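Why does residue order matter? Because the sequence determines the fold. Keep that principle in mind as you read this record.
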Amino acid sequence: MTRSNGRPGVSGAHAFEHLSVEECWQLVDGAEVGRLAVTGADGTPDVFPLNVLAHDGALYARSAAGSKLSIIADHPEAAIEFDGEKDGYRWSVVARGPAARLETDVDAATDAEIEASGVLRLASTNRGGKPYVIRLRPVTVSGRRIRLDAADTSSGSTPVTGPIVNSKRAQPPRPIPHHPPPKA
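Structure:
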């Protein structure tokens, strides 16, 4: 774990811990649902929930024909975000890299990759046919976690709520000097 300054520990004001790449992959390996983030041709972002699995340094998901496949065909740079709770922490991991659509029965190497990944046995909450496979090869993987101290009421900590206040801006404004209009 590292802080934003690169040293081990907790990140000052945010009280979150950065995760090592190995810790990120361990969490992703146990996750079932991720969110695919892409940027469409019009420049607007879109997010799609997916059942995802990790295999051999890549992430795989099944998909039906539709907008996410056409988007990654034109704009392959994507990210998949995972989050969850484990051992008294909330965590989030983001994997970024190029995404591609893989099809079965195209060539032996692709068929072997798809079979080895296990994605064809991946359960989906959508019962419709999903003949396509999406593969994201992460270039970067990063994550962080934060302790669930709010659940420990004996420590006296309570979640922070209310308006966001900047101490410098919380002061009343200085009065604007008033000068009466000149007499005609």
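The chain has a mean pLDDT of 81.
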